[in-house]
UniProtKB/TrEMBL annotation:
One of its GO terms (molecular function) is acyltransferase activity, transferring groups other than amino-acyl groups. Residues 25-403 form the Acyltransferase domain. GO terms for cellular component: membrane. The keyword Heme does not apply. It comes from Mycolicibacterium madagascariense. Keywords: Acyltransferase, Membrane, Transferase, Transmembrane, Transmembrane helix. This is Acyltransferase. The chain crosses the membrane at residues 21-45, 57-77, 106-125, 178-195, 207-233, 253-274, 286-308, 314-334, 355-375, 387-406. GO terms for biological process: lipopolysaccharide biosynthetic process. Pfam families: Acyl_transf_3 (PF01757). InterPro entries: Acyl_transf_3_dom (IPR002656), Acyltransferase_3 (IPR050879). PANTHER family: ACETYLTRANSFERASE, ACYL_TRANSF_3 DOMAIN-CONTAINING PROTEIN. It comes from the Bacteria. The lineage of its organism: Bacteria, Bacillati, Actinomycetota, Actinomycetes, Mycobacteriales.
């Protein structure tokens, strides 16, 4: 969605003209950088675990949380904007359009890549990926078990412990995304019912869904220690990624709902700025206050990791990601320039963001294939850098193909139906 605006001047001050909502500049590039962060962490961790630990490069993998925050931000925007229409005519955004577009955005690309990975390259994880030694393709092959195959084709493998982390192992996050997609129309129904049947202000109604998801995520995390004690799992790797119910719970929407919610709260702030419902002094300083808030957020991240056992660590990352979105987008909401957004909206950045879904799904099978073919270096810093260059280049090349042959045509077809239903 670009926020475009023109300026006039009143009493020597710039005033934003009415805006046309489309693509918000910079966010595609930010999405691309997040995808690269995840890929870098996986490539380095798989083939250079010691060098990765020494350089702490694995921390860039936390950029995965940005995907969830960005989903919450972008997908919640239409629901909030509609709240500020006349109460008698305000309508819930078209759920049919939402569902079809969300399916088309992920499923065709995922299915095409999974089928190639499983049946052509035969590099799917048949066994849980976390149980396999790093630097090898052990546990991979072709999934033939009908139940396991059906689970991976429908993105439900993350709900079954024995199928968890099989197939394309990073695809567990798509299962989480779809769970959020399922919740959003229901939260929208709640908001618009409150709009029609109560005298609550649109702003108060808008913050109810994110607050509900924050409570859900924080309360669910409270049960993690009890689950760990019940199942008697002590390995951090198995707790997070093993074939057990604790890992399934930790990667579920219940335990991650708050990650989406912080993006939704950022969307509320942006709409309040668009509607000129924030005091002018506060609106001008949203970017400044967001920048200042990054420091205590970083402290909270460290504290969550050291004190709370790590289960609230992702919450701190999500807050930081929401603040970064505000830093980037707040000037745009005021009809002003955002240097960060412009840099992230350059052609190379936008391209990486465009193919980010394919790149996210391809990078792990690609790194496994490159290792199988003897093209990856050893566990040194130099070897790690070489592996990153080779694997990322190969990933971007094959991702470009699947984007233009599968993803983009699916999206274009969906847009035709969306326009037909809208009219």
């Amino acid at each position: 969605m670009t926020i475009r605006s023109r300026h006039s001047r009143v009493a020597g001050k710039p005033v934003a003209a009415p805006r046309t909502f489309g693509r918000i500049i910079g966010l595609d590039g930010a999405r691309g950088l997040s995808c690269l962060g995840v890929a870098i962490a996986h490539i380095a961790g798989h083939y250079s675990p010691q060098a990765s630990a020494e350089t702490k490069i694995g921390l860039v993998g936390t950029t995965l949380i940005f995907f969830y925050v960005l989903s919450g931000f972008l997908l919640f925007l239409p629901y909030i904007r509609g709240l500020y229409e006349d109460r008698d005519t305000a309508r819930l955004p078209n759920t049919k359009n939402f569902v079809v577009h969300r399916i088309a955005r992920i499923l065709p690309g995922y299915l095409a890549i999974f089928l190639l990975v499983n049946f052509v390259f035969q590099v799917s994880y048949v066994q849980n990926a976390s149980l396999q030694p790093p630097g090898t393709d052990a546990g991979t092959g072709m999934i033939t078990d009908p139940w396991q195959l059906a689970a991976n084709l429908t993105l439900t493998q993350s709900y079954v412990p024995k199928f968890f982390q099989t197939g394309i192992n990073p695809a567990w996050s798509l299962t989480l995304e779809y769970a959020f997609y399922a919740s959003l129309p229901l939260l929208g129904l709640l908001m618009y019912a409150l709009l029609r049947r109560t005298r609550l202000s649109p702003t108060r109604i808008a913050i109810i869904p994110p607050l509900l998801l924050i409570v859900l995520g924080f309360v669910a995390k409270l049960f993690v220690p009890a689950l760990i004690a019940h199942f008697g799992i002590t390995s951090d790797v198995l707790l997070n990624w093993g074939p057990n119910w604790v890992a399934v719970f930790l990667r579920s929407f219940l335990a991650n709902a708050d990650n989406f919610a912080f993006g939704m709260l950022a969307a509320v702030v942006i709409v309040l700025m668009e509607k000129h419902l924030l005091r002018e002094g506060l609106s001008r300083r949203v970017r400044l206050y967001s920048t200042i808030a990054l420091l205590p957020t970083a402290v909270a991240f460290v504290g969550a990791f050291l004190v709370a056992g790590g289960q609230y660590q992702t919450s701190a990352v999500a807050i930081g990601a929401a603040l970064l979105i505000l830093i980037m987008v707040a000037p745009l909401a005021r009809g002003q320039d955002s240097g960060i957004a412009r840099v992230l909206d350059t052609a190379p950045m936008r391209f990486v963001g465009k193919v980010s879904l394919s790149a996210y799904l391809w990078h792990f099978p690609v790194l496994l294939l490159l290792g199988r073919w003897g093209l990856m270096a050893g566990d040194t810093v130099g070897g790690m850098v070489r592996n990153l260059v080779v694997a990322l280049a190969a990933t971007m090349a094959i991702s470009t193909v699947t984007y233009y042959l599968v993803e983009r045509p699916a999206i274009q077809i969906t847009r035709k139906y969306r326009h037909r239903w809208a009219s």
